[in-house]
């Protein structure tokens, strides 16, 4: 059974650009969540999607957005990149969310220069 | 914001030693507590999901306990091996509108020396 797949694994962007990250969940999973990890910080919740609807949103500026497609694949977009957006972005999938186990991808390492 | 604290921040032990870490979380509005093991350059690996006060879970040499009334969980590793070296994360999930989000601690980084 394939795990959670995130693409690309590494990305270098320039300040002011925008970026799109992709997450393919485990087959059959309908909940996809996104997290950001910056140096010295724990994983910070960005948003959760379930059946193409955003169900939860963390405390991030509007430059961070996402969406989920009918096949449960999710994309995360960051517009007008800032140096502080340099981070590891992880997505996690679970069947329904809630108390169920969430399975993580390996993440996308974004560097903004 | 729900503060999840983990201690110690890092731990160095010899192979064969047993060790334990602590995760503390707000006891109100509790729904679930997750433990993850995260090796460098890999995905965080789910270890346990615990929901009931007094829960004890075990997977091989690793076990965990949960006290929801006082807001803490312990993770134990018996007879540590070098392959146990990783960062161990706990995450709290609350009820209601925040059900879909996990609040993570900063982790305990374990190094096991041969």
Which of globular, elongated, flat, extended, rod-shaped describes the shape of chain B?
globular
Round the mean pLDDT of chain B to the nearest integer and report it: 92
Radius of gyration of chain B: 14 Å
Summarize the helix and strand pattern of chain A as letters: EEEEEEEEEEE
Tell me the distance between the termini of chain B.
40 Å
Helix- and strand-based class of chain A?
mainly beta
Give me the Rg of chain A, rounded: 13 Å
Shape of chain A: globular
Strand content of chain A: over 45%
What is the chains' assembly state? heterodimer
How would a crystallographer describe the biggest sheet of chain A?
Answer: 7 strands, mixed
Structure class of chain B: mainly beta
Question: How many β strands of chain A by DSSP?
Answer: 11
Helix percent band of chain B: under 10%
Count of discrete alpha- or pi-helical segments spanning 4 or more residues of chain B: 0
Secondary-structure element series of chain B: EEEEEEEEEEE
End-to-end gap of chain A: 37 Å
**Overall helicity of chain A:** under 10%
Portion of residues in beta strands of chain B equals over 45%
The poorly predicted ranges of chain A are none
Characterization of the model:
The complex is a heterodimer of chains A (113) and B (114). In chain A, strands 2, 4, 5, 6, 9, 10 and 11 form a seven-stranded mixed sheet that branches. Chain A is built from no helices and eleven strands. With 113 residues, chain A is mostly beta strands. Chain B is an all-beta fold and 114 residues long. Chain B has strands at residues 5-7, 10-14, 19-24, 30-38, 45-50, 56-59, 62-67, 72-77, 86-94, 103-104, 108-113. In chain B, strands 2, 4, 5, 9, 10 and 11 form a six-stranded mixed sheet that branches. Classes of the chains: A mainly beta (113), B mainly beta (114). At the A-B interface, strand 4, strand 5 and strand 10 of A face strand 4, strand 5, strand 9 and strand 10 of B.
């Amino acid at each position: 059974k394939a795990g959670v797949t995130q693409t690309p694994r590494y990305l270098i962007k320039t300040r002011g650009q925008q970026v799109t990250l992709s997450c393919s969940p485990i087959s059959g999973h309908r909940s996809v969540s996104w997290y950001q990890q910056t140096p010295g910080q724990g994983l910070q919740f960005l948003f959760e999607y379930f059946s193409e609807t955003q169900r939860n949103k963390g405390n991030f500026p509007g430059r961070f957005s996402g969406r989920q497609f009918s096949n449960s694949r999710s994309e995360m977009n960051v517009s007008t990149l800032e140096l502080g957006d340099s981070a590891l972005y992880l997505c996690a999938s679970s069947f329904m969310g809630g108390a169920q186990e969430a399975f993580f991808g390996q993440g996308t390492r974004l560097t903004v220069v | 914001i729900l503060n999840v604290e983990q201690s110690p921040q890092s731990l160095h032990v010899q192979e064969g030693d047993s060790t334990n870490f602590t995760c503390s979380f707000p006891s109100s509005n509790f729904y679930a507590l997750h433990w993850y093991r995260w090796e460098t350059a890999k995905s965080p690996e789910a270890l346990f999901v615990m929901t009931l006060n007094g829960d004890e879970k075990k997977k091989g040499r690793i076990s965990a306990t949960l006290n929801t009334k006082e807001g803490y969980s312990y993770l134990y590793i018996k007879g540590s091996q070098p392959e146990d070296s990783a960062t161990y994360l706990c995450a709290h999930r609350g009820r209601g509108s925040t059900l879909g989000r996990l609040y993570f601690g900063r982790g305990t980084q374990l190094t096991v020396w041969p």
